[in-house]
Design goal:
Elements: E1 9-12, E2 15-17, E3 32-40, E4 58-63, E5 75-80, H1 85-101, E6 105-108, E7 118-122, E8 127-128, E9 138-143, H2 149-160, E10 176-178, E11 227-229, H3 245-254, H4 259-262, E12 276-278, E13 281-286, E14 306-308, E15 314-320, E16 331-338, E17 345-351, H5 354-360, E18 368-372, E19 384-385, E20 392-396, E21 401-407, E22 412-420
Parallel strand pairs: 5-6, 5-7, 7-9, 14-16
Antiparallel strand pairs: 1-3, 2-3, 3-4, 8-9, 10-11, 12-13, 15-22, 16-21, 17-20, 17-22, 18-19, 18-21
Helix pairs in contact: 1-2
Length: 421
């Protein structure tokens, strides 16, 4: 794998209250501390559709800051500089997602904007961003032409509003094994843990966060794994380019977005399946993937179907075809397997085409894959598959059982069998 580096530098920090630990609830009224890292950045392989290598070296230093690193009034002035039309589209899509799910607002301003701090979207030869408001006037979010898709754009914009990498969390070692022998010595600082005294973890650890790097990040050889999930079934999930429920939930907690519903004095939505009232409209819900409708009690609209399980095996081919309307992102098909109330559901599935499997197989499953939401927490990303060439067998009490298949280009088909027990 060709190594790629440049001269851009990424400043990274994460706020927590002075008395916080990994288990301590976040309290925005306290004084905050920050960890600051300065990084020479390159493009993580899984975030490109080209053959670029891992991130470069970094130096770490810790400094004490305050809440001024959040953007005042949840408003981020920004303007777009010298980037490609595809990057402009990705940024626009990312901002639309952030506006839909959170109370953060990106305000488009003129490049001569001088009324405070702002973000400039620019191509500096890397996918990189400072983390949080730097109080330096204009700060750059860099997106080069190889920073593919809305997933990368939202990753960098989430950095800009104050969200750090998942694998840097203080509780990381509960969830990951680090394979230091596969990491270049210069890159080892990228795997340093941040102190729980200095960091607050606002949401559960989610392997499928858009802020989590892939299993081969910073590898010193092609396809060598540098970090493995404790639950090995999540190895393809890490490195996702799909922002998930907890990504947005973390932003909403950090910026106190939920206060708008808590303090409204009006009745708010009674959300099902782990949903939370949307801070922009308390009568509807932010829903975890696989659930839809205003109250998260319906199958999402669009591609997919409801499969009624019996006590005998039934078979179905599940197919997703890419829509050009989803350029720079994914096309999703959402199905539900429904059995009698209280019954356990069993499913067996595998990809139908070996050539398609080879085409989409990657750490992060960023070309396409399947997610069967069998875990108890409806909000968390389940183990995704895009590489295995043997059938997967899942038994779960989740009923209805959401099944999500998606693609960024290839037509993907799975053989899917289901029944209730």
């Amino acid at each position: 794998m060709e190594r790629f580096s440049d001269d851009s530098r990424c400043i990274a920090w994460m706020p927590v209250s002075e008395s916080s630990t990994a288990e301590t609830p976040y309290n925005s009224s306290n004084t905050l501390h920050f960890v600051t890292t300065v990084t020479e950045c390159a493009i993580p392989y899984y975030r490109t559709h080209s053959n670029f290598g891992s991130l470069g070296r970094r130096k770490v230093r810790q400094v004490q800051r305050d809440l001024s690193y959040r953007w005042p009034n949840n408003m981020v002035p920004y303007f777009v500089g010298n980037v490609t039309s595809n990057i402009k589209k990705s940024v626009r899509m990312a901002i639309e997602e952030l506006h839909a799910w959170t109370c953060i607002r990106f305000q488009n301003v003129n490049e001569r904007y001088s009324n405070g701090d702002s973000v400039r979207i620019v191509d500096l030869g890397s996918c990189s961003s400072p983390i949080g408001r730097q109080q330096i006037g204009k700060q750059d979010v860099s997106l080069t032409k190889n920073c593919w898709g809305m997933g990368t754009a939202i990753h960098e914009l989430m950095h800009a509003i104050g969200i750090e990498h998942t694998q840097s969390r203080s509780d990381r070692n509960r969830y990951l094994d680090i394979l230091a022998q596969n990491i270049d010595q210069r890159d080892l600082p990228n795997f340093e843990l941040l102190s729980p005294r200095l960091w607050a973890n606002l949401v559960p650890y989610d392997y499928g966060s858009v802020m989590h790097y892939s299993a081969d990040s910073f590898s010193n050889k092609d396809d060598e794994q540098t970090m493995l999930p404790k639950d090995r079934t999540f190895i393809e999930t890490m490195g996702s380019m799909i922002p998930n429920f907890y990504d947005f939930d973390q932003i909403n907690q950090y910026y106190n977005c939920y206060d708008s519903c808590r303090n409204s004095g009006e009745q708010v939505a009674n959300c099902a399946n782990g949903g939370i009232p949307n801070p922009n409209n308390c009568q509807i819900c932010n829903c975890p993937m696989g659930y839809g409708g205003d109250l998260c009690d319906q199958r999402p609209e669009g591609c997919g179907s409801t499969l009624v399980a019996t006590d005998r095996w039934q078979k179905q081919k599940m197919t997703v075809r890419f829509s050009k309307n989803d350029d720079q992102y994914f096309t999703f098909c959402n199905s539900w397997v429904v059995g009698p109330a209280g019954q356990t559901i069993q499913v067996i599935y595998e990809i139908t085409s070996e050539s398609t499997r080879r085409q989409i197989c990657s750490f992060g499953c960023y070309e396409g894959g399947i997610e069967v939401k069998h875990l108890e927490d409806p909000r968390i990303t389940n183990d995704r598959d895009c590489c295995l060439n043997t059938p997967l067998n899942v038994t779960t009490t989740v009923n209805p059982l959401p099944v999500i298949i998606y693609t960024s280009g290839a037509t993907v088909t799975y053989d899917f069998s289901y029944r209730y027990l």
